Amino acid sequence: MKIALLIFMAIFFHLMPLSEKVRSEETVSPSSEFQWGGSVELGYRFADIEGRPRYKEVVNLMEGLRLFELSFWAKNPTRWADLFSLQTTGIGDPFPSSRLQIRKEKAFDLVATYREYKYFFDRSNDPFFSDDHDFDQKRRRGTLTLSIFPKEDVKLNLGYGYGDRRGNALVPRAFLDLHEEDLKERINEYFISADFPAGNWDIHLKQTFWTFENRNSIDDPILFEKRKEEIDTYVSNVKGHSRLSERWELDVGYVFSHSEGRAHGVSIPPVPPFGGSVPLEGDFDSNLHIVELGLSYLLSSRWIAHLDYRFHVESKDGYSRSEVDLPSSDLSQISHTATFQLEYLPSANLMVRAGYRFQYRDVDADQGQRNPFDGGKDVEDTKILSHGWVASAEWKPSKVLSLFGEYQGANFDNPYTRISPEGESLAKLRIKYDTPIPKLTLKAIASWKRKRNPDQDFRVDVQDYTLTALYRPAFASDLSLDASFTYERIRDRKDVLNFSFFDFERFVFDSNALIYSGGITYEKIYKGLGARLNGVYAKTYKENAQRYGDAIFSLWYKNKWVTPILTFERTYLSDHVNRKDSFSAHLVTFSLRKEF
User: Fold this and answer.
1) What's this model's pTM, rounded to 2 decimal places?
2) In 3D, which of 69, 70, 74 has the Cα closest to residue 23?
């Protein structure tokens, strides 16, 4: 395969000057409107690696022949399609991607995408005091979307997407008992949507259907397990916007989701208390309704009042059968969320919005299986009233400075992103400043987020602060510099009682990190000679003490034939908790790039 690819690329580069001549002759003709172009980059990477398992987890760039980029585009406005575009990157590496687009302006747009990811995890953990596990898996994701424009203000979308997970994983099932599991999971998505006007309304309709299949299995001398799980989900979405008058605007929305799942399988553990095969059978049913209303009123030229209401009701029930029958479980949740805000527009470059939000949640569960040693409220009867201030502001005092801030001061549940009954508080601040020094830009981002599960007394606090500088000197337009600094702190807290060896009333994970990155690029040092030097250094403290560094130096020479590129990379990770999980690597990559 590699030899054939090398021969093909050699012929391709050899014929490229001829294709350039043919293209130039075609573009000279005034009757021809056909334009085309693209690029290709092929190379070989050499690697010297120590600590391969952890290196595969963090970097996973191995030695071998690689097609780093292949792109092609063609335009002809007189044909049935005025644009054809193909982009492919990373062929041979663990994360290749491709994108194909065929488009006719104001008629249709067809886009197909494909992405692939390979994940590897194999730590040298002590199985006596850790959840020792590992995996070597591949995830694939593909989409196909067709957009049709029958009228200027009408858009119809048809789409399909899929994703799967294949590979193997080492799964802990009992003390010092690890099992090799074959992974076979797949999800399919089908959807149709439409955007169109209807009277004084702008309407959006979308219908989606998802299917999920799990065929994971374990087959070893200690445990045999075969799973067959299926989930079907239907989602209907309706949105509408209308300008009722010069002062009133109304937004409405409705989401309905129905899921039903089935599980059939078998498990044969040769240890008591089970004997023979244990059936893995069950089913569940879930329904979700979300109703949203948003009303805005123009009080004056500078003041706007906003009233938003969301009603969210969810119900689930399921049945599980094993050698010891479990009772059916039911879960229902009703949530009301109301927000009132005033928006102030004192000038064209300043917007301030502030208000108050109330949310009431009533969670009721029957026959739910709950760990009695978990902290927090009783999940079978939980009523939560949350309320707090919400605010946001956006200000651009000058052409060179812009600021954005957001604040949410209480734990509010979000039905669109929630998997478990969690709420979150957050605050954000974003600043961009084009300094008086020409071509020097400063950016600052600060965010604080707290997630809390009221039923488990579990809380996560995350703080991020990032400062970035970009500089392209006016006296050297081919020179650019960039640098950034990030401080991050993560603190997790969980109340749980574990009486296996010791009594733990609270588990806390507290870690912070300092991340430095920067680079310098210089084009046209001498004719087509260019270079870039960039690197990253990160250090974590406390429970997760590690140091990571990565430095890359690249040289290239642009010319009208082929651009050679030579890259040197030095990367390492030092794990101060478990030094066996460190790595060190030197990489050298040589590639040829051709633009046509």
Assistant:
1) 0.80
2) 74
